[in-house]
Amino acid sequence: MSQTLHKIGEPQTSKDNKLRESNTQKFSFRLASTGEVEQVSKTRMVMPAPLSKITKLPIWDLAFRPWFISATALSVISLSIWILFLHGKISPFSDGGISPLIWHIHEMLFGFGATIAVGFLLTAAQTWTKIRSLNGLALLLLTGIWLAVRVLLLSHSVNLQLLAIALQALWWLVSIGYLTYMVSRAKSRRNYQFIPLLSAMMLLNLALLLADIFGDTQLALHLSRCAILMFALLVGIVGGRVIPFFTERGADGAKVKSTPLVDKLLPVVTLLCVSVFFSGHFIALAFTPAALLITAGILHLLRLYCWDPISTRKVPLLWSLHASYLALGLGLLLLGVSYLTDIIRFADALHLITIGTIGGMILAMIARVSLGHTGRALKPHGSMNIAFALIFFGALARFILPLFQQASLGWDIAAASWLIAFSLFLWHYTPILLSAKH
What we know:
Helix content: 55-70%
Strand order of the largest sheet: 1-4
Largest sheet: 2 strands, antiparallel
Distance between the termini: 12 Å
Structural class: mainly alpha
Strand content: under 5%
């Protein structure tokens, strides 16, 4: 980022004027094609050193940098804690407050998944709107709030856990508020849909924590499953934009077909599905969401077929996206089937989405975004091919092995696959995300 000092008035030599001059910088920006800040101008006052030296580090330039690192590290740490807990090796949880199960779900779904999603949207919004996204001191403080939530949720004090919930709400409100400011100021109507979607996810997040902390773990579990279905809606929207776009430009000979009717039907079917599933916990319905889930799954699979997934088999950054979308279609389909047979458990089918879709899509996207938005070629390290494959291997193991009464083995394989895959990402990408634009 190029910056030049701006002298006020005639040249002065006094200490006061020198101090004033040193704290005045030209500040505005021009975006590169990657979405990174390329040029700066326009006068404004800035913070004096040493804090300004910290906030000017590359990591605080856009939300994807600190949040991709921290959320991925959280998934590795929290999943390790969960597996050790399941095997009786550690017991870090208190008897009161948030239950171990809901803590695990919350940290993987919201501490990891939602953080990555919001970080991606705040980064992408800068490209969409040409308005400077969250950065510098504000991003540093918001990241500090996010870290405080992680620590406080593991506290044995219910009051501190309630403080964590309040801080989680603050994190959501600031993030959604800034995204709203960007898209509304730029009149980016196509992206208005993300505001109610993220707001609904925020409410589900806070409600499940409060329900569990006050003793209704079953309600919290139900709300977490509703949130996963909302993630399916988000993946459908974002995936529907980027997967065919990337495929046409990155896969040799790809024959991508547009699906306008399916694109219109999917959000409606998914929202109806979420509404029916959500309501079923509170009122007796004459029907289940099975038909809607199966319909949504089939529509996703039809959409994927039109994107020519076979053409991506030699491009890891593409086939990984297609595989994660395949897991979404199959996951929703099997969730619906779980209402019709006892052979398939709802929770097992759900992990095709949580691991294969959310985990797989996130790994594929952050591997791509981290390269593209730092000005690097879209050529990930060869070991990332292993990372992509491990995520889908883990998702299949988590779904299939319980069918053969090997649930514990399925959990272990899925966890090990996740830990290796995202550790590989941290190993290769942390230096990239901490460094300046290439």
